[in-house]
From TrEMBL:
Residues 27-397 form the Major facilitator superfamily (MFS) profile domain. It is found in: Membrane. PANTHER family: BYPASS OF STOP CODON PROTEIN 6, INNER MEMBRANE PROTEIN YBJJ. This is MFS transporter. GO terms for molecular function: transmembrane transporter activity. InterPro entries: MFS, MFS_dom, MFS_trans_sf, MFS_Transporter. It is a multi-pass membrane protein. Keywords: Membrane, Transmembrane, Transmembrane helix.
Length: 397
């Protein structure tokens, strides 16, 4: 039996109109740039993971263990996100968590040992978890107040930041710019952007907090199914983020410059899909997109595994990005419409578990890679994505 969300009236804007609405609306644009800030910070770090892995002489399993520091930070922070946002407001929380994230990414890239690297990643997990919920809350507040659709475009800005960050890293690696200098420059630029956005974010009307909306909740069956789909897609995103460069460099023999493009190709496909999302989701239906998207993502990653040739692997990560592109925006919006659960609580709960997949997935891949090879670690993600495609057919969103 299908499980159904409460119906939500929707319009079907044209692609041009949806993009125009997003980019000409100051509040929507500001929230989108916050999404970009997070992915630029993470994308810059990700491109240099092979460098840090080699510098600290880490094995696949060793790298996976250190990367677990990020989901540990997430697990400690996410149950508190609703409480913090309810008291500080989503806009102020965005500002503060973005500042901490910018500074945190400087630590692992410069860490002289594993302990300091783990501490830096722990701080990244804390701040990214809080920023993730706060910026999605801001996007939902803008949608509710102005009666417009911007969630998919905001996630498109996240993907755009990842793409730009990956391409910039590839260029800087090619001209032998120090990773430390690169991340310092990114941090300074993002700090200036964050300060500039603060006055606009402060104008976004927030939903009045309730006692229940600030609490973490035990998921019901509908939310559990959505969480599994979100976990699967987040694992795919995490695989591209943390392992695409390593897989291209070590399994296909690609140069460091080409390896850095793996996440860039993934993000390019994500960006295009998400900027189209606010127009095509109402037209084709969220349920169909969830199912087809999961299968496309699984097919792309499987292609990268079966044909370990740099250009084919880049094409595979592109398909992975295309398949994953619209699933997160659909589920973030749907998590705020689960019957019997306050909107803010549903969002915080879903974000907690889906972000676990994003951060904990890569370390799990590392453990499997150490025992059986990286291709098998990525193969685990393929299996989970296929399962999510079948589960998507049971959930009407």
């Amino acid at each position: 039996m299908n499980i159904t969300l409460d119906e939500k009236p929707s319009t079907t804007p044209s692609l041009l109109r949806s993009l125009q609405t997003f980019f000409t609306n100051p509040q929507a644009r500001a929230v989108g740039l916050v999404f970009t800030t997070e992915s630029l910070s993470l994308g810059g770090w990700v491109a240099h993971i092979p460098y840090v892995k080699e510098k600290l002489h880490l094995t696949d399993a060793g790298l996976g263990m250190v990367l677990f520091a990020m989901p540990v930070g997430l697990l400690l922070m996410n149950p508190l996100t609703g409480w913090i946002i309810a008291r500080l407001g989503a806009a102020r929380t965005c500002f503060l968590s973005a500042l901490v994230l910018c500074f945190s990414t400087l630590i692992p890239i410069n860490a002289p040992n594993v302990a300091l690297m783990a501490f830096g990643l722990f701080l990244v997990g804390l701040s990214a978890a809080l920023l993730n919920v706060a910026m999605n809350t801001c996007a939902a507040d803008v949608e509710r107040e102005q009666k417009i659709l911007i969630m998919s475009s905001c996630h498109g800005m996240w993907s755009l930041g990842g793409m730009v960050g990956s391409l910039l890293a590839g260029i800087l690696i090619a001209i032998h710019v120090s990773p430390s200098i690169h991340m310092l420059a990114v941090t300074i630029a993002l700090l200036l952007l964050t300060v500039a956005l603060r006055p606009i974010l402060a104008t976004i009307p927030a939903q009045p907090p309730t006692e229940s909306s600030a609490a973490f909740v035990k998921p019901n069956m509908l939310l559990l199914l959505m969480i599994f789909i979100g976990l699967a897609v987040a694992m795919g995103e995490g695989a591209a983020l943390d392992w695409s460069a390593v897989y291209l460099h070590e399994s296909t023999g690609a140069s460091s410059q080409i390896a850095a493009l793996g996440f860039g190709c993934f993000s390019l496909a994500m960006t295009i899909g998400r900027f189209m999302g606010d127009a095509i989701i109402p037209r084709f239906g969220a349920k169909r997109i969830l199912s087809v998207g999961s299968l496309v993502a699984a097919s792309g990653l499987l292609l990268a595994i079966l044909v370990p040739v740099p250009l084919v692997v880049l094409a595979g990560f592109t398909l992975l990005g295309a398949g994953c592109s619209l699933i997160a925006p659909i589920l973030y919006t749907a998590s705020m419409r689960v019957p019997g659960i306050p909107a803010a609580t549903g969002l915080a709960t879903f974000a907690t578990f889906s972000f676990i997949g994003f951060l904990a997935g890569p370390p799990v891949i590392g453990f499997v890679a150490e025992a059986y090879g990286l291709a098998y670690g990525l193969g685990l993600v393929v299996v989970v994505l296929v399962l999510s495609a079948f589960i998507s057919r049971k959930v009407n969103v």
